[in-house]
Amino acid sequence: MSERAIGFEVTASEGEARAGLLQTRRGVIETPVFMPVGTAGTVKGTRFEALESEELDARVILGNTYHLWLRPGVDVIRSCGGLHRFIGWERALLTDSGGFQVWSLGNIRKLKEEGAEFRSHLDGNVFFLSPEISMEVQAALGSDIVMVLDECAPGEASHGEARTSLELTARWARRSRSRFDELQQEGADLGKRSEHDGPLSGGQALFGIVQGAAHADLRRESLARTVEIGFDGYAIGGLSVGEAKPVMYDTVEMLAPLMPPGSPRYLMGVGTPEDLVEAVARGVDMFDCVLPTRNGRTGQAYTSRGRLSIKNARFAADARPLDEACACSVCRRHSRAYLRHLFTSGEMLAGVLFTHHNLAFFLDTMRRVRQSIRSGDFARFRREFIERINSGVE
User: Fold this and answer.
1) For the segment 38-80, what is each residue's pLDDT rounded down to a tens digit?
2) What is the pLDDT of residue 200?
């Protein structure tokens, strides 16, 4: 019991939807949870003070192993005492393994049994990423939750292609587990905490990743082999990578209820607000996505009536807020007309304000989801949320 890196308890459920508490060495996270993406050690367009404020109250954010490894580099972060100290964030951090970024490089990477050789998108220099190297980098980063290195097949991969990817992912998962355990014993984790609450070890947690593209039999096999190795949590990878949305929903609906009930379930890289609600209904606990910040920088706002593009000329003299149902500080203070003026003028404040609103909308949606599950009212919430978000911006 004293060796656990995290604790997880389901406190309420309705159908497959679950509300719970995820205890990390840096505090308790209520689930289902949306995790803002901080790719290069920053959630683009906002300050940590805003993320920590009562309005947003983000309890966990992501860091990206690939980007931080390439720049500023492990040596710099290690010399600063780990990623938390380097960026000034004391709440929980999850780091991905770098596998998805390497996969996205396409023809400038070479996949081998040992790992992946690729050219940096920054300067063209050749790098090599293996399960062992990924674990070593993430230990130096000192993140609270570490992801194994996996190989992501395209969403429309054939059964044979997905089988090859699954087999490599399974072998890499075992190697990740082995090297991770060695590093924990060696004390390489720069984020380790000697003072912590409850029965936690103070060390890092390690999550396994289930692959198999859109093939149900391969997904079930990948899950069984991942659970056999044994991890602190389990992630569904390889979705939202080009497959049709119904395929994603069907895969999650089939897979999530088969995942260990006493461990957190993480759907990687997903998605829109309606995706989050639909995946919660299918049993998922954790989410991340770049959409609220990336789209915010291009003048797009997520609202209770769907996505709003401020580029539209009809908002030029619109005195209403982005979302009349939103209580965030942007909607309380600023009009669509003013926000459009900022955006068309090229003012950097436009991206900051859109990002803040979008993060507030995503995080508030998750708060409402948790509340509805705890009150036994999730089915109604889900139905009304989806109906309203598809009704269109006025």
Assistant:
1) 999 999 999 999 999 999 999 999 999 999 999 999 999 999 9
2) 93
* Domain end point (choices 286, 305, 325): 286
The domain boundary residue, chosen from 286, 319, 353: 286
1: confidence class by pLDDT, cuts 50, 70, 90: very low
Pairing of strands 92-96, 109-111: unpaired
Name the catalytic one among 189, 275, 285, 288: 288
Q: Which of 389, 366, 383, 371 is nearest to 58 (CA)?
A: 366
**Shared-domain flag, residues 84 and 216:** yes
Residue tagged active-site, from 96, 150, 189, 285: 96
Q: Are residues 179 and 314 in the same domain?
A: no
Shared domain for 80 and 37, answered yes or no, is yes
Residue 150 annotated to the active site: no
Domain count, the chain: 2
> Whole-model pTM?
0.97
Instruction: Judge whether 288 counts as a catalytic residue.
Output: yes
